[in-house]
User: What shape does this take?
Amino acid sequence: MHIKNIFGYLALCGLLAACGGVGGRWSVEQNDATTTPAAMYGTFTDSSSHRMAVLLPSSGDAAVAGRGIRTSVEMAVLETGAKNLNVSFFDSARGADAINDALNSDPEIIVGPLFANDARTVRELKPMGLPVLSFTSDATAVGDGVMTMALMPTNSVEAIVREMQTDKVHNFIILAPDTETGHLLAGAARAAADAYNVPLVGVFFYVEKDSDSIKSATQLATMNVARTAAHTRAREILSDVLTNESLTSIERSSIIRQLDKLSKNDVIGDLPYDAVLFLGTGDDTKSLASFLRYFGVGAHDAKMYGTAMWDGADIALDITLSGAKYAALPEINEMFVSKYERVAGAKPNRLASFGYDATNMAIGMMYSDKLNAAYLLDPSGYTGNDGAVRLRPTGESERALRIMQLTGDGEIKVVREAVTDFMTPLYNIEQRHITPMGELSLQTRGVNPMNYITIPERLRGKYKSKTYGANMTAQTNAQLVDVVTVLPEDDRDPIVAENYKPVKLAPVKQTYIDSIEVEE
Assistant: This one.
């Protein structure tokens, strides 16, 4: 085994000791539904020489993330004990020059790059048959043999909308950051809402980490102006009745009780939704939830849901989000975490975990007697450090997710475990078919305070009120476009054989990936 540019790995070796042909097209003909997928690891005794190139940033702003992935790549290479394997590292921060250098090394597979723009460049420059295992979450950057090990944002959006259907949500709204990613995720939620018949009735955008923008978005989403005006008018009517009308003792007591109840709130009126889907980070979500509560919409008024963007966020003790659910990857394999900590002196993040699995997948492919596409695109998938994963002919990945729930007291409980195979299709929408969505104003009949107070019937003709916040017309400014919901390209019959299970892996501002997953 020959590994270029690995320093200080005699110590690593001591630590770890304790512990086919190129396909020209990227699709798979699956004729035998009962075939068990080939293992991705084992004893590699192939006498021929194999070459793997690794494209990761080792300089620049993303160098820390690059080094984290490189550590896991080196761990996986050393653990497999593969013979006659040459691994070359290239600094993707150098752009096209590094990519050309990597291609000139004549690799059988490339692991990396990290970012979407680099993945696009690799796709443009590489031979069609050369496979690439990247880490971008941008579906527009993959395809033609460029695949990604990253979690596609649409996976967690669809998973949580499916959970909303299970919870019998009637209507929901979205609060999303006003970014490219935010608009994409809103489009994904719209597609999922159509697929699972959970009506989406409003979409509101805010500027990330901007309190004024977050406040403004939540004020609109809660119909605060209309509900506050209706509340004020209701108190006026009750006060006028109490002051100016001749009432029986029972009628007077009723009016006083209603006034006392209204004094404890600032708004009245039903909402046209019973759930809120947050598409931003945990920090922004905490601010949004606080403003929602301030404007009269708490957890008892609307169920709250989030995505994998909450994973690892400091939200467990937030009482405002008590009961909220979100989709998340399974816990990283404990054995891998332990080994990585011993080597790197820190816990691995998701990218490091993806890098370890990508390396094992790459080595398994090189030493397999299958065609590259048949190995990498095995429809039964694989089991890695982060649960079940499979790669699609489009280059996108599918990852099994679990559903978590916040208790508000520091605990996060698992509501639904991630599935361990792909015998039943997990997702019905593909990120590359999603059209970003614009703002969608609430469609509501408004709030008439007379519907929320009780006065003597004889006085109802005398005391009247207008309806506040009525919006009965179709929205012309909402950027609603046709969102295509499609099934995966692979339209074969579902796999039903008991032995059709994922195979376990080794023992154990740029778009999407840049803004979501590169965190240290």
